[in-house]
Every structure is written in C-alpha cells, then in structure tokens.
Amino acid sequence: MDSSSSAPDAPTGDPTATAATATSTSTASPDASGSRTGAATDPRAEGTDPGAEDAAPGAADAAGDAAAAAPAAPPAAVAPPADRERPAKAAKAAKAAKATKPAKPAARAAAPAPAAGARARVQIANRADGGFFFWLGKLYGFAALVVMVALLLTVVLVYRHFAASAPPTPDLRNYARVTPSVSRVYAADGTLLGEFANEWREITPYERIPERLIKAFLAVEDHDFFNHGGIYFRGILRAAWANVTAGDFAQGGSTITQQVAKQYLGAEKSLDRKAKEAIMARRLEAKYSKRAILSVYLNHIFLGSGAYGVAAAAHHYFQKDLDQLTLAECALIAGLAQAPSRYSPIRNPERAIERRDVVLDQMVKYGMATADEVEAARAEPLRLDVYHDVFPDREPYYAEQVKRYIADKYGPDALATRGLVVEAAAEPSFEAGAYDSVDYVTHKQDKRQGWRGAEWYLDNDTVKELFVDRQRAMYGSGPLERGRRYLALVTDVKADGAKVRIGDRELDLPLRDMDWAAEWHSGWEAENDHTITNARRALKAGDVVWVSRETRSRGKFQEWGYDERLNPTWKAAHDESAWEEAHPDVVRLEQVPHPQAVIFTGDHRTGYVTAMVGGHDYSRSVLNRAVQSCRQPASAFKPMYYSLALDDGYGYDTVLYDQKVTIKDPVTGAEWEPKNIFEDLDGDVSLEYALVHSKNIPSVDLFKRLGADRVVKWTHEHLGYTTKMYADDALALGSSCTYLDELARAFAIFARNGKWLDWAFVRRILDRDGNVVEDNTVTFDPRLRAGDRLDRMEATAGIKPRQAISPRTAFLTTKLLVKMVENGLTKTIRQTEIKAAGKTGTSSYTLDTQFIGTTSRFVSLMWMGDDQNRRALGRSDAAYITVVPLWARYMWEVAREYPNEDMPYQIPEGVKPDDRGDHSKGQRGPRLDLRRHYAHDVLEAEGLLPPPEGATPPGT
C-alpha cells in the first residue's frame, strides 16, 4: 500500500513540516513513469541523528535539487499533515538511511515535487565538477602531459639511435701509441735527414705543459671546462642563436670535451654529428679525468702550418720548447685554435696579434692572468723563428730512397703515421763529399760544352728595378759567399767583359771567367772546349744570368784540367785567399748544368750504402739515377763475362784475337764492326791484356766463345742483375741497360771473394716506443752499443751470406781489375796512391760514362751522362776523361783516412796469390808484359804511365 495514502495531513500552518513531508512522500512513492524509489530524511526533523549528514554528505542538497528540477505533482498526490507518530517514524527512517549508504545516488535521481507555491532552486549536484573552464583546463593539461610523454619517449628513442650508431668511446690511455706521429730519418752519425708526417705532432705529457699555456686555451676555448660535465648548455644556446641568425653553422658552441670527441668523429657540420659528439663527450667525461681529456686536446689540435698539438706549434713558430714560451707566445698559439689559417702569424701577423690580444683579455676576464702580466704581454713584439724541415735540403736523394724503401716494405702511410725512428746507413762526410764532387764535375763538363744563353731578358727599367728589389730581399747586402751562385742582371757589356748587378752591388765579370761561353750545340757528334774572345758574343745588357764569386784557392786533388790530347791532369794545390779577399766583387759566369752525374758508395764489408747522390740538383730533378735509371754499362759490363770465362777454365794468358771483324745480327741481318777505343789492332793478345786495356774486339771474341745465353744466366743468377738483357753479340760491349746500384753490387761481390751482398740503406728501424722493427746492423758496427751488439751476435749466429760465385773466380777477377787501375787509363787515380780495382765504361756517343772502383773497404760508382739523350758528353770524350778523375777526387776527399790495403785484400783458402787461372780452355799463350804492346806506346806518349819510383805526383 502506498505510504502517501495513509499519512495524516500536516498542519497547514507549519511550512517546515509541509516541506519535509513533501520530500518524504515524494521519495517513498513511485512516479507514473516507474522511477526508482529510495529513502531520504530531513536532517532538520525532530529526532534525526546529527551524524546522518556526515554519513551521506550532500544528500539533502541533492534532494532539494531534485525537487526543484522535478515537475509539480497533482494536488491529490500531496501528502496529509504528519500525525503523532511522525517523529518516531522519521527517526526510524533516518536510521535506515544512515545504515544504507547506496541510497545516496537514488536521492540524487528522485526529485520531490516542490510545495505548492514554492520557488524552484538550482543547486550543484557534484561540487568536483568545475564547470566549462575547469574541464577545458583538464583537457589542455592532459594534452600537455601526452606531449611531454611523447617528447620524452622521442628523446629516449633518438638517444638510443645515436648512442647505438656512435663510435665506441676512444681509449685515451692508448692515445700516444696510436695517434699519427712524426717519423724521423737519421744518418749513421745521428744527423737528422728528414721528418715525415701527415700530422706533424710531438706528444707531450700534461705535466710538462706550462700552466700559462693551459690557461690561455681555457680562457678562449672553454673557461668553465673544469666545472661542466662535457656539455656547456649556455654555450650551445648562444651558438644555436648565432646559427639561426646566420642561416648556417656559424658557431659550434662546443666544449673542449666535445672538440676531443669531434676529433674521432670528423669535421662534418651536421645535426647527426653534433648529436654523436654530445654523446661521446658525456661518455668521455664519465670515463676519464679532466686532465686526461685536456691532455689529448692540447696534443691533438691543429694549429696551422702542418703543426698538430702545442709542442709542435712551439717548435714550428718559435723553435722553442714549451717551458720557454712567454705569455704572449702562449696566447698567440691558443688563438690559433679557432682558425689556424686566418690567424697564421706567418701569413697574417697583424691579425695574429689581434687574436693574441683577445686571448689575453679573456685571461684577465676569467682571472687566469693579472692585468699587469697581460699589459706586458701585449707590449711584446712578435718574434717568429719559423722551423724549416731539413728535407730536401740535406741529403735528399738518400732520404727519398729511405722513404721508398719503407713505403714498399711497410705500406705507403707507415713513415707518415707510425712515428718511426729510422737509422739510415748514410755517412754525412761521404754524402757531403759526393754532393760537392757532383756539383763540381757537372758544372765543369757543362762549361766544356758551351753556353745555352741567359736565363731571362728584362727589357724595361720598371721590370729591372723590380728584379733588383727582389735581389735585395733574397741576397741581402753583404759580400758574396764563396761557392754560392747568384742571379745577376747584366748592366753593361764590353769586349773584355761585363758589368753585372746584384742588389746594390756592381760586380765585374771579366772575359777570362766567361771565355767558355761559346754557342752550345746539340747532337751526338758535338765537340767540347770551344771558347770566345769577345764577351759580346755571349751577353747583352738586360740579360739575367747566374754568377759566382771568383775563387782561386784549391786543395790537393780538387781540380783537374786537360792537356792538348784531352788527358786529365791535376792542378797543383795553392792558396790565393789574399787575392780573393782583395777582389770580393769579381765573378764568374755560370749556368745550370745540362749533364747529370751519380755517385754511389757502399761499404762492401757491411753492406751499408754510405753515400748516394742521384743527380746534380734534387730540386730540379727528383729522379734518383743511382737506383731508378737503367743505363748502358758499356765496357763496365765486361768483368761480368770475364769472370764467367775464368770460372769456365780460361786463364789470364788465354789467347784472344784482336783483329778486324764484322758481326751480323742473326735477327735483323744488320752488320757492325766492333772497334777499340783508339781504333788500334794488336793482333793476338791475352785475356789479361784485353781487359786491362778494355779492348773491344778481343772481348767480343771471348763473349762469342762463352755464348750470350750463358752470359745472361750467369749475370742474373750469380751477380744480381734484374734488368732484361738482349742475348746478342752487342751485349759484349754492354748494350743492355742495368741499374747502377746493381752494377756496383757485382763489383762488390768480386771484392768479397764471391759472397753475396744486399745493399742496406737502413741500419735499423725503431717504433715510437723504442722497439726494434727491423735490424740490418752487423755485429762489428762501431756505433752499436754493447747490449745491441750482443743481440745482433745472437740474432745472426750461424748465418752466413751465400756464395754467389766461387771465391777463386772472384779473386782472379779482382786481380784483373787491379791490373786495369795499375796499367790502364787511370793516371789520376794512381797519383792519389789509393789502392783500387776497377773498370771504366763508355757507351756509344758518350751518353753514358762510368767507372766502378773498389778498395779494401768501399766500392764507389761514378756515372756521368745525358739522360735526355740530347747531346753527347763530348764526341772525343771517354770515361777516363770524365769520371775517372771524379772517382779519384771524391775518394781522396772521403776515404783517404781509412785503411787502404792491397787488393784483393783477402786470399781465399787454397788459392795461391800468383794464381793466373786454369787455362783448361782456349789456347794458352805467353805471359805478356802489359807495357810492351802498341797500347803501351800510346800510353807512354800520352803521359799516362805510372810515374817512376820515388817521383812526386802532380797535385802535391
């Protein structure tokens, strides 16, 4: 039964009771639409529990709201006034509501009808709902949270991507061992021959770097280095703004740690690289100390002009050690870090000083230097002392050969990156003598050939003045140096000489110092030694020519001349220094030589190559003719097959035929006639006589008996030739080319009684830690320390060189070569009293002339020729005119203090000193007196025989 029908009517005069009754009635009765019913109480009713509101907060408000929102009920549904049982019932209902909390939503849903005539009220049912702006704020907050989470996730993913693709953290502890470093090549006595590197760097420990230099770098590159964790965010933001405004990567904003990371990542300007740089910087900071990172930075950074690192920069710009640098010099070096080319003190000294002052200001700003120190540094002038590598100014041909050797054996980058210490076998005293002799002989032979004209011609006063200004800058204003050549301007020419100008100096060029300047002619038939009697035939005003100061003093066996028969003759030694001091402004005409020359010297006991000069001027031609040019040996090839003949059973007294013969080439059918040097014919001669006097016709006879194929095989397999040889009769006269160092080795094998020899250009190679990479030293090397000598004795124990040819064959061949020096066209050698064995060689048209001579210690090869094949050395010249006196001059200078034993200096076991061969092959004739044949008469008439016993030779 509906509770509303049984409720008594409420008094009409009590509005409170009416409202309460209405509410109670409404919530207890179902509406017409079948709404849920629920219990609700009025906390203001009599007997209500005061805690009911706490138990169901907002229930009354919710009921009121519902009542206001509900439609008005019909009058019949209005409940009557409450009866006397209402307080009890209300209390009971309140208890029920308190016990049953789920009635709360129902109270919100069921809305009681307002009392008749009552005003409807709107109340907030859920105070947590803040309305439109509240929900809008929630929406944006949620969106921001999503974005932040997405950004965080993106950052994590991006970091993981770059972290995975970034190179591993470099091992800074191993930096000094793996970073590219300078390799140095030293001569045998420790003389520096060259420094080679892609990055010229000197690794210096942090403790040895001055504090003022460290502070200079920190002030201008990363003043907060010791405080940040590898990334300086303020600097990054500043650089980012600069890049945005510039529209490019104008600034990097990198810390020193990031710059170290950059060294391992490359210099590419991209976001990808910057991200990896930051990651690697953080890893470096986590793994290494600040000092370790800073040490790598200061040793690795490029500071211009090929210098990497602070030590290299100090040596390059000031030739100082780090502890010798002033504060101003430290600031200048630190300023180079930003832009080495822009602030180069060599190219832009003013700009370099401006940058230096910026660094000094930064040092004051960050408290790294006092104002007084900086003021003094600013006042210091720039004093550069730029370092220049000694290569190629010091023994360049030898140093270049060492470079090639290491590149071939250890790779093209080994010398430029591995920091090797290379101990070459070059002896500086031998090298100096070789360069001097090559310079002397090429100029001498060139002047015999004639004048090729001025270097340039200046046709107006403006250009002449400009040229003179450059002379002043290059040559200074002091007196001319002896032995130096200068470019001079011809100002006046007369018949008896000319006037030339070098800067502010007016110099005399007399005719006697230029009479050789007859017109030069090319061709293979050109003759030498033409002269002029009028200076105007060679020069005119405005010519630019080479000159040198006239000197008249000379030492023993330093200069030679020629008699009317072209026999070389030593000029007597004399001192004319007083005349030279009185005439400092007298010059000689010079020119760049056209002929080339080579000197190659090796110690055949050790295998060390003590000297090698591959041409007249390395700066004009880097071709090393000693090891890179294949030249015709001519008669110098004869000992190769004479040794085969002696090994075959021929002897010194074997008869050979010296008579006219015509040889037909079996392939081409061409005919040719070998001729002797003086076109003489002696009939029957001995093998000994034929080699001593280098007779061609008997040599061809012997060659044909041996067979060309056998000669080629013997030369390749036993004497070390590697070049291709044409096995025809012309080979008997040395028509096939060979490398000059291989030709010298063959003569060394003869001197060594047949033992094989490999030339050693390098004694030892050490790595940057001092470990031996390669060792070619011999146990009796006087420069080895005791410990190293013991090591070599252990390493080479039981190792012996192979026997290339039999000791007896080598001994017999060397004896023949000794007789050649004693009796042949070698008077200039005999006069020096150097005991030697050797052989001359002159090719057709004198394009190649050589002499290879061995002493008891050294083998030295002299070559002179025209490798452009433009002109003969001289149609009437030969090796005894060009290179035999050169050999004597050079060996007197460099080797006269060494022991000079008779050759052969060793007699093989079981061989008699007077052995003259087997004579088991060929016809044996009588032993000939080498001075009784026609050739002896020619020598005697030309004054080429040895002087009588006790006579004083020329040149003393």
How would you describe the overall organization of this protein?
With 956 residues, the protein is α+β, with helices and mostly antiparallel strands. 39% of the residues lie in helices and 12% in strands. The chain has 33 helices and 26 strands. Strands 6, 7, 8, 9, 10 and 13 form a six-stranded antiparallel sheet that branches. A hairpin with a 3-residue loop joins β25 and β26. α9 packs across α16 (349-365) and α15 (327-335) packs across α16 (349-365). The radius of gyration is 52 Å and the shape is elongated. The chain starts with a helix and ends in a 15-residue tail after the last helix. Mean pLDDT is 85; it is low at 1-85, 98-111, 934-939 and 944-956.
Reconstruct the topology from this structure.
Blueprint (H helix, E strand, L loop, with lengths): L2 H4 L8 H14 L23 H4 L3 H11 L16 H14 L3 H7 L22 H34 L9 H4 L4 E4 L5 E5 L3 E2 L9 H11 L11 H14 L9 H10 L5 H17 L2 H11 L6 E2 L1 H9 L8 H9 L13 H17 L5 H9 L16 H15 L3 H4 L3 E4 L3 H22 L6 E2 L3 H15 L9 E10 L2 E6 L2 E6 L32 E7 L10 E3 L5 E3 L6 H6 L4 E4 L5 E8 L5 E5 L16 E2 L6 H11 L6 E4 L4 E2 L6 E2 L10 E4 H6 L3 H11 L1 H12 L18 E2 H12 L10 E5 L5 E4 L10 H11 L10 H17 L3 H4 L6 E6 L5 E7 L3 E8 L13 H4 L1 H12 L38 H8 L15
Parallel strand pairs: 1-5, 3-4
Antiparallel strand pairs: 1-2, 5-22, 6-10, 7-8, 7-10, 8-9, 10-13, 11-12, 14-15, 14-26, 16-21, 17-20, 18-19, 22-23, 24-25, 25-26
